[in-house]
Amino acid sequence: MKPERILSLIFGFGLLIIGGLSLLGNLFLQTQAWRLWPLTVLIAGLALTAPGFLALARRGMGGFFIPGLPVLVTGGILMFASLSGNWSIWALVWPLEVLAVALGFGLAAVFMRVPGLAIPAIIIGVNGLVLGFCNLTGLWGAWAILWPVEPLAVGLGLLVVGIANRSSGTKLAAMILIGIAGAGFFLTSFISAFNTTILRFAVPAMLVLTGILLVGMTFFKHEVPVSSETD
Q: 44, 64, 94 — which closes off a domain?
């Protein structure tokens, strides 16, 4: 069956299920069945995400992961909030939406075989993790110390692209950005030493991670000349 027909069937069945659930909700409005209305959002998310797996046959389909996963996560949060009545959960878990977008770009990069999509995936993902950390701990001032994660995220994205495309120039650019991030963490580590929160451990940990990346990339770069000399 052609991908276009499969896509049509997915959206068709999705609309049928959503319509059927809406009718059932109207019929049983006097019961608690109306609390299941987020199922419509969940099904819409599934309908948007499912075509992405067809990217193995047609690469363009992988782009459906980018809108599909955030809708799917939204449906899951809405379902929990509706069934529990705890609508304040949004104040706690909203960074999951950012991480869902990052995962959507990551899956699109894999299924579409487009390494360049790893750059927004990693940048958005790293920012989503920092936002989640700040949201859970309330330490929004952490951005003043954790700002080097931005060049680090861009460098990691370029590193993935450079490795995938075997581009020494891209890997060099990645090393420069990761080095800048390392210098930034080195400077902020002095500030974090006087911090009484978890940040006094987070910044040195990021400094160690950056050092590991730089050392690893140095050894990786030296592998290429060795193999070329033996040819």
A: 94
Beta strands in 101-218 (DSSP E): none
User: Do residues 115 and 159 make contact, with C-beta atoms less than 8 angstroms apart?
Assistant: no
Task: Output the six-digit token pair for 206.
Answer: 């990021």
pLDDT digits (tens, 9 = 90+) for 37-77: 788 888 888 888 888 777 666 667 788 899 999 999 999 99
Residue 43: exposed, middle, or buried by beta-carbon count in 10 A (0-12, 13-18, 19+)?
buried
Rounded to the nearest 5°, which phi and psi values hold at 197?
-95, -175
Quote the number of domains for the chain: 2
Say whether pLDDT at 101 is over 90. yes
Cβ–Cβ under 8 Å, residues 105 and 121: yes
CA 102/CA 44 separation, integer angstroms: 19
The answer as to whether 99 is a domain residue is no
Long-range contacts of range 204-211, CB-CB < 8 Å, 24 or more positions apart?
206/146, 206/148, 206/149, 206/152, 207/182, 210/148, 210/152, 210/178, 210/181, 210/182, 210/185, 211/182
Residues 143-185: tens digit of each pLDDT:
888 899 999 999 999 999 988 898 888 988 988 998 898 888 8
Owner of token pair 């680090």: 152
